[in-house]
Design goal:
The complex is a heterodimer of chains A (125) and B (555). Chain A is mainly α and 125 residues long. In chain A, 70% of the residues lie in helices and 0% in strands. Classes of the chains: A mainly alpha (125), B alpha/beta (555).
Chain lengths: 125, 555
């Protein structure tokens, strides 16, 4: 992939962070409506071309040097998506506890990848 | 029952439309299918590709099916095959990344007034690209990081819809697409993101304060308010107190007051007519700019303020520096090297048609003028949503919604040849006056049973004589003569004709009555005309407009 590290981090934040948290941003207190569960399943397990978010992130990381994958926030995002994969059956089944945890994971993945992108751009700590 | 606002989603994927259909159910949605009823209840929904528009061609198709769309939700990145992208000489990757902006440009040409929410943020959009598309265009909003938060997105859509029904602020720069204005807009957006002050120069009526409010302040990304002050309207001895605030007892009658710098904290402060700043306040302003702190009158301690300072003037500041009436160090601090100069309307006359069309729409967007348009449509038996457009030469043949005002080619040529000393403000007044008077005549005919056929009734010719009279009278609207203003409005410079003298005196009478009655047209009618003031108020309002007066300028 072309562009420097800053561009690489921006791409992670856009292609994975932004889309993975689409439904998760809308999960609030109380019962989660079924359409939202379906969207959460799509975001986490069918993010792009039928691939899981974890696989999309792994593929993007493979395109870049090790310094991108070694970033502390990116590494945390990888671990979080691994945890989300383990919850797949519960989320697909609409189990409230798993849905909420998966949504929290998705939101944190977005925050981590956005934070990494901001740091790479020189706008963050 | 009023209809729900209708949204049209334009996205290469399904994410936005799924989210909108699932969580924003208070709206109708424009689709490309002929079935009625909500998409989310449709049996054919799984796998359906007609739920929204995936590219520019499908956008046109959807708008053809749904001319009543209220807001477009537009993605920016379109991961589509090259043949589905709008043509451009840009590299393919960039075309995909910014396809939404190309679609926006495409949409502006066909439906320039249609509000668009761009589903992206400034973080994802390069600044120079954002400057080209945003935020000078008041019809475009950024959803930002909230694009996927249904509650936040819903609030944004509501704000956009509410704004659509307001009369937009004056200043025609937002509608000009000449190269000079595009460049100016771009420069303004770039300067807005810096910590430097911005100096705007331009003749009266070119839209300096509008540039500050509608381009610089939004592009600055600041969350504080936009605060504007016209320094020519404040007595010199009060300017310092107005800007920096006062402590109780600072001088006789002084009360606790924060001042405009504090009011604009974390926002933008526009000092209009900066050339009028008294010398002692120039020094105080210089200190504030250097230190980022202000001291209220009567206090010893200073306070930090974070303000984006914008200064504007139509006077020659360089000459004022040479003549010693404006401090050289303050002038240097105002960043004159990067000053923004708004061109006079006569120097970008190719923008005239677009500006005139925009002012026609604005004139009838709200308030009494819109009510007049609605009344005419009812009297003429016209159905559909009220709205106004402008055509030059002749009206389109198949007008089926709203009204079209028609300017003859001769009138338009006369307007192009005019020097426009009052710039876009003067053009705005001319268009308002001409269209309102043409409409009033049409209304009188319709109410008198002399209505045209339904098709013809949607076309309102603006008489060439009326345009000529308004152009002839325009010189009196650019710069009122201060000496005669001070003389109670009765002394005038010699005019070319007695009718011009009468018009100017009448204009001042209306100004005075407006102020004395607090803008109550019924009360004004009671003082001007015999008969029922409620009936006469509309006539007074029309005359008020014809004289080039605008209520918001006098309040």
């Amino acid at each position: 992939m072309s562009g420097g590290p800053s561009r690489a981090f921006a791409r992670l934040a856009h292609d994975v962070g932004k889309y993975v948290a689409r439904a998760a941003r809308n999960v609030r207190e109380g019962e989660v409506p079924p359409p939202l569960v379906d969207m959460l399943v799509t975001d986490l397990y069918l993010l792009k071309d039928g691939q899981r978010a974890s696989a999309v992130l792994a593929r993007l990381l493979a395109d870049h040097g090790p310094e991108v994958a070694a970033d502390v926030d990116v590494a945390r995002a990888v671990a979080l998506l691994g945890e989300a994969d383990a919850l797949e059956a519960g989320v697909r089944g609409g189990r409230a506890e798993d849905v909420r945890r998966a949504a929290a994971i998705a939101r944190e993945v977005e925050e981590r990848l956005r934070s990494a992108a901001e740091r790479a751009r020189g706008g963050g700590p | 029952m009023s209809r729900k606002p209708k949204l049209l989603v334009v996205d290469d994927g399904e994410r936005y439309v799924e989210l909108a259909h699932a969580l924003l159910r208070g709206y109708d949605y424009a689709t490309r299918c002929d079935l009625s009823g909500p998409c989310w209840q449709c049996e054919r929904r799984p796998g359906c590709t007609l739920t929204h528009a995936h590219d520019a061609a499908e956008l046109d198709e959807a708008l053809g099916h749904n001319p009543d769309v209220d807001v477009v939700l537009l993605d920016v990145f379109f991961d589509l095959p090259e043949e589905r992208l709008l043509p451009s000489s840009e590299p393919l990757d960039r075309r995909r990344r910014l396809q939404g902006l190309a679609i926006l440009e495409h949409l502006r040409r066909s439906r320039g007034e249609l509000p668009v929410v761009l589903m992206t943020s400034l973080e994802e959009l390069a600044l120079e690209d954002a400057a080209a598309a945003l935020p000078a265009d008041e019809a475009v909003s950024l959803a930002g990081a909230d694009a996927f938060d249904a509650r936040a997105l819903g609030l944004l859509v509501e704000r956009v819809l509410a704004r659509r029904h307001e009369v937009p602020a004056a200043g025609g720069y937002a509608f000009g697409r000449s190269r000079a204005m595009s460049r100016l807009r771009q420069d303004a957006a770039v300067l807005a993101r810096t910590s430097l002050p911005v100096l705007i120069l331009g003749e009266t009526g070119t839209g300096k304060s509008a540039l500050a409010e509608h381009v610089i302040h939004p592009a600055s990304g600041r969350e504080g308010p936009f605060v504007a002050v016209d320094l020519s309207a404040i007595p010199p001895q009060l300017v310092a107190a107005e800007l920096f605030g006062t402590a109780r007892g600072a001088f006789s009658g002084a009360v606790e007051r924060e001042g405009l710098f504090a009011e604009a904290h974390c926002g933008t402060l526009l000092l209009d007519e900066i050339g009028n700043l008294p010398p002692d306040v120039q020094r105080m302003l210089l200190l504030a700019l250097q230190s980022g702190r202000v001291t209220r009158l009567g206090e010893a301690t200073s306070r930090a303020v974070d303000v984006k300072l914008v200064a504007a003037t139509n006077s020659d500041l360089e000459r004022a520096v040479r003549e010693g009436t404006f401090r050289a160090d303050l002038y240097a601090r105002l960043n004159p090297a990067a000053r923004l100069v708004i061109p006079a309307l006569r120097d970008r006359i190719d923008d005239l048609e677009e500006l005139a069309s925009g002012f026609t729409r604005k004139t009838f967007a709200a308030g009494a003028d819109r009510a007049l348009l609605v009344r005419y449509m009812e009297a003429a038996g016209l159905s559909g949503p009220p709205g106004a457009a402008l055509a030059i030469g002749r009206a389109p043949e198949d007008v089926d919604r709203g009204l079209v005002f028609v300017l003859s080619r001769q009138s338009f040529a006369a307007m192009r040849a005019h020097r426009w000393p009052g710039n876009v403000r003067e053009l705005s007044m001319l268009i308002s006056n001409a269209s309102i008077f043409a409409l009033a005549d049409a209304l009188a005919a319709a109410e008198g049973g002399r209505a045209a056929t339904a098709a013809a009734a949607r076309t309102i010719p603006i008489p060439a004589r009326l345009v000529r009279e308004l152009l002839d009278a325009s010189w009196s609207e650019a710069d009122p003569d201060p000496a005669s203003e001070q003389a109670g409005g009765l002394l005038l410079e010699p005019r070319p004709a007695l009718r011009d003298v009468a018009r100017e005196l009448e204009r001042r009478l209306y100004e005075r009555l407006f102020r004395e009655t607090g803008g109550d047209f019924e009360a004004m009618a009671g003082r001007l005309l015999l008969g029922d003031p409620r009936v006469n108020a509309r006539r007074v309002r029309l005359r008020f407009n014809q004289l080039g007066l605008r209520a918001r300028d006098l309040r």
